[in-house]
Design goal:
about 110 residues, alpha/beta, 4-stranded parallel sheet, 3 helices, 4 strands, globular
């Protein structure tokens, strides 16, 4: 027997409603896709980016798509101080409850 799909065509068996997620590097490529997928499945998502302009553009686009449960902050994870700020912000925002962590940071500098 097949499960019924919700309005967005997502299978209810895959609901992440009420779950919290942090996706680092969520404004481009795979990270961006992961943010949208988690939000589409009902998770409350926070992402970060080193680039404030890209972050703000993505947050605006996500709001226009109806993803109002996505937030973001500027953070360069190379910086210990900025990592601490990110963790404090996420902890405060999610009331200390983080269910999903996607560490999607890396560089291919030449």
């Amino acid at each position: 027997m097949m499960a019924k799909a919700d309005i967005n065509g997502k299978d209810r068996r895959w609901s992440l409603h009420g779950m919290t997620a942090l996706v680092t590097g969520g404004t481009k490529g795979l990270g961006h896709a992961i943010v949208e997928e988690l939000a589409g499945l009902g998770a409350i998502v926070h992402t970060c980016s080193r680039n404030e302009g890209q972050l703000n553009d993505c947050l605006s686009q996500w709001k226009m798509k109806g993803f109002h449960q996505i937030t973001g902050s500027v953070c360069d994870l190379v910086s210990r101080a900025q990592r601490h700020e990110l963790i404090n912000e996420v902890s405060s925002q999610f009331n200390g409850k983080l269910n999903i962590l996607i560490n999607n940071v890396g560089t291919a500098e030449v």
